[in-house]
Amino acid sequence: MMRQTTLFCLSTALYLPYLAAAQTPQSARRTPLVAVVEKVSPAVVNISAESTVREADPFFGIFGFGAERPAQSLGSGFIVDRNGIVVTNAHVIEGASRITVTLLDGRELDADVLGSDRDADLAVLKVKASNLPALPLGHSSDLMIGETVIAIGNPFGLSNTVTTGVLSAQGRTVPSERGERLFTDFLQTDASINPGNSGGPLVNAGGDVIGINTAIIQGATGIGFAIPADRARRVVDDLLRFGELQPLWTGAQLLSVDPELARRYGLAVRRGALVFKIYPDSPAASAGLREKDVIVAAGGHPAASREDVTTALYTAAPGSPLDLEVRRGEQTVKLSLRPVRPPEGLGLQVLERTVGLRVEAVRGGLEIRRVTDGSPAAERGLRLGDVILGANGQRTDSAEALGREILRGLDRGGVLLSVQRGRFVYTLDFAL
To answer: CB neighbours (10 Å) of residue 260?
Structure first.
């Protein structure tokens, strides 16, 4: 009898924690984390992007034959304005013929693209609805490593999934979706971010959006990345106002410093962004920058490469000062640079001055009307009558479109031109 009583007491003791939890009032279980999720979730949406892809015929694919089939990609996003403005990643909606946004309450709404920028990997959508729950962008300038973060999104199609973790690091270098450029300021978190989370918000313990989830390392666990809110803000504002990200003009062309470059130029530092060209009458010239200066800090953050300076420019508003720390020989100089919107026609001017090409719009593309003797274009064999079809992998059907891609190329240090001569198309890379 004693043995049975002992077993009964032991069994009861094992279940006491569960019994206590069941009797705990719901108000006591509504932790700050639960409160944040309740605040944020209504503004998080699922995004379905439908497109049509052509599968090549195994026998006649080279002649363009093949079957078309519908394709669907899933992602996440969040409402930043009550009148139906949604932010997501550009790669989530790229190539889509129809975009559907699903709200937490189950409503499915068709969305139009107001603007998208592949380099920033951000897109802004509009749905026809009003009085929606909104979650505006917060700030990422005062983040603390180790603070609690929450990711909400649509991983593997599982709507409004909540994961938590900590902010693992800042300033991580991550390649863009196509590998065209490097981002040097991504936030890293161990909150689970999986395919389908892209475009969803990363929030702090106060429910403020500190980043936009965008990337994972395939095969790795506990490592996810987000675009910082401070950089996303200017991109989103430009997409809303202009439909595209407006580049900023400094007039300084930069090279990333490495030990070999430092030895060749006799630099006193081994990391930074070397100023190798200054355009006259530009913001860089007005700021007092000189050729062979090395930018070692921008916007209050160390600059170990050209990409670090480009990243700082993403957070800068036109005309606002960007503080620079520059090594000039053995001296350290502090300057204030005010980037501006590029003057009209600047991209084409850079193309002519740097590459040696002048173009004119004709039916079917942009025809080369001048090749400067001794220029990089002349050295690569370009000649009058060749037609530029595209730049940086994008079709350019107007001089303005080509100019914009040239300005994009300034950030990367080069431009990739697709040039047609007769029946053949050549791809040529030019430094800027």
So the answer is: 9
Q: What is the pLDDT of residue 60?
A: 46
String of DSSP letters for 272-292: EEEEEEE-TTSHHHHHT--TT
Q: Residues spanned by CATH 2.40.10.10 within the chain?
A: 148-242
pLDDT of residue 365: 80
Q: How far apart are CA 316 and CA 212, in angstroms?
A: 18
The residue ranges of the chain whose pLDDT is under 50 are 7-8, 10, 57, 59-63, 65
Q: Give the active site residues.
A: 91, 121, 198
Helices then strands, counting H and E runs in the chain, come out as 11, 24
Nearest to 206 by CA among 186, 188, 184, 229: 229
In the chain, ranges of CATH 2.30.42.10 domains: 252-337, 346-431
User: What is the distance in angstroms between the CA of the first residue and the CA of the last residue of the chain?
Assistant: 91
How far is it, in rounded angstroms, from Cα 401 to Cα 123?
Answer: 19
pLDDT at 158: 77
Q: Could you confirm whether domain 252-337 is CATH 1.10.287.770?
A: no
148-242: CATH class: mainly beta
DSSP letters along 133-164, please? ----B---TT--TT-EEEEEE-GGG-TTEEEE
- Would you say the C-alpha torsion 218, 223, 228, 229 has a positive or negative sign? positive
CATH superfamily of 346-431: PDZ domain (2.30.42.10)
